Amino acid sequence: MNDSNGIRWGIIGCGLIAPKFHRSLLNTGEGRVVAAASKSMRRARRLGDKTGIPHLYDSYSRMLEEEDLDAVYIATTHNVHADHALLCLERGIPVLVEKPLTHHASDAERLIRTARARKVFAMEAMWTRFNPSSIRLQQVLADGVIGEVQHMKAEFCVRMPLLAPKMMPWNRMYSPRLAGGALLDLGVYLVAYARMIFGRDPETVESSITPAWTGVDKTTAARFRYPDGAVAEWRCSFREARPRDVVLTGTRGTIHVSLFTGADQFTISRDGEEDSVIHCEKSGFEHEIREVHRDLREGRTESERMPLQESLEIARTMGRVRSSA
Ligand SMILES: NC(=O)C1=CN([C@@H]2O[C@H](COP(=O)(O)OP(=O)(O)OC[C@H]3O[C@@H](n4cnc5c(N)ncnc54)[C@H](OP(=O)(O)O)[C@@H]3O)[C@@H](O)[C@H]2O)C=CC1
Ligand SMILES: O=C1CO[C@H](CO)[C@@H](O)[C@@H]1O
After folding, report:
1. CB 153 within 8 A of CB 234
2. Do 295 and 303 contact (CB within 8 A), yes or no?
3. Ranges for the Gfo/Idh/MocA-like oxidoreductase N-terminal domain (predicted)?
């Protein structure tokens, strides 16, 4: 499936995140990006100049036809993730699809049906789940260090200007056409986090949404209730620069986790004890990329840590957040 230089990746979508994926892949030492495609040759060349990716295309399909790729990283806007993943899956090419897997749950169903029918690997790039700190946190929770988790409070805020970046006609973040908005861009991490912590879908969903003038949400807040009485409350926003934290409260203590900045550690607090800081290996895309490589080498068509069914449930829960506001 790969040559002596490792797994051969292609990239669809030559925007901001593409060079980070390229760099992280090189850091794994397990593969390289051999081709990248954009709707615009100018954007493809700009990425090529930055990264040295050898083959650049202004057509996604032409790249898929002409290149011998082991996997494709889908890094386009949320509205077209499903279409671009399907372009690959229908040709039998595995995909790592940037979050959120799709805009609507119905598109996720379509994508998953095709991946399963063709027996081709597909995964949502929920990279935070593969960070060593997330894996360690799950072990700590499973060991009952803070007892049963009763409450999750999470915020992910990133201040986003409404101005269009130079190369784009309109900033994707605020565009309804491109499936922008804080929920799809940031809130998806928190919905996925709640799914990881509580291991199931919420029984009830309450939400409130503050729209930007463009129509997409600039802030979304929600409360999830679970059948055993546990509650997850979270908020995501393009209006504020911070916070980006999670606090888990269990029957025997609390855990503070930083999302993104400082995500390499978490702090456990228990009554009558000194706080203990658990330090973990550095976070980054490298962990999810290595996991994809392992899955591909071992012939799996889904990730055990980020299965497609879970991505579908996350997409459905985001639909419930939108409809309950
Ligand atoms: N994991 C992480 O930490 C991050 C993940 N992401 C995710 O990665 C994906 C891409 O994000 P990012 O790179 O920031 O996005 P960009 O705004 O940089 O755009 C990515 C690509 O989408 C297409 N696109 C963007 N704007 C427009 C437009 N106005 N009209 C038509 N096409 C457009 C272009 O594709 P083309 O070049 O093919 O024409 C562009 O290269 C998203 O799913 C996002 O959520 C983003 C940032 C961080
Ligand atoms: O996934 C993401 C992580 O954080 C970014 C901001 O810093 C977001 O915009 C992005 O889509």
Report:
1. yes
2. yes
3. 7-123
Residue pair 321/186 in contact by the 8 Å Cβ criterion: no
**Ligand 1 atom closest to 185 (CA):** 45
Q: What is the pLDDT of residues 74-94, one digit of tens each?
A: 999 999 999 999 999 999 999
Quote the pLDDT of residue 161: 81
Tokens of 222: 């929600």
Residue 71 predicted with pLDDT over 90: yes
DSSP assignment letter at 224 = E
How confident is the model over 229-256, as pLDDT tens digits? Answer: 999 999 999 999 999 999 999 999 999 9
Q: Identify the burial level of 117 via C-beta atoms within 10 angstroms of its C-beta, where 0-12 means exposed, 13-18 middle and 19 or more buried.
A: exposed
SS (H, E, C) 112-174: HHHHHHHCCCEEEECHHHHCHHHHHHHHHHHCCCCCCEEEEEEEEECCCCCCCCCCCCCCHHH
Structure tokens at 164: 């269009």
The closest-lying atom of ligand 1 relative to the alpha carbon of residue 40 is: 39
Write down the pLDDT at residue 167.
45
- Indicate whether 182 belongs to any domain: yes
Which ipTM value was assigned to this complex? 0.98
| 251 is a domain residue | yes
Of all protein residues, the one whose alpha carbon is nearest to atom 4 of ligand 2 is 186
- Tell how far the Cα of 78 is from the centroid of ligand 1, in angstroms: 8
Distance (Å, rounded) from C-alpha 265 to C-alpha 108?
A: 32
User: What are the φ/ψ torsions at residue 146 (nearest 5 degrees)?
Assistant: -110, 20
Q: How many domains does the chain have?
A: 2
Q: Are residues 12 and 41 in the same domain?
A: yes
Pick the atom of ligand 2 nearest to 98's CA: 1
Residues of the domain holding 199: 132-283
Sign, CA torsion 10/189/314/106: negative
Q: Note whether 58 and 76 are same-domain residues.
A: yes
Q: pTM of the prediction?
A: 0.97
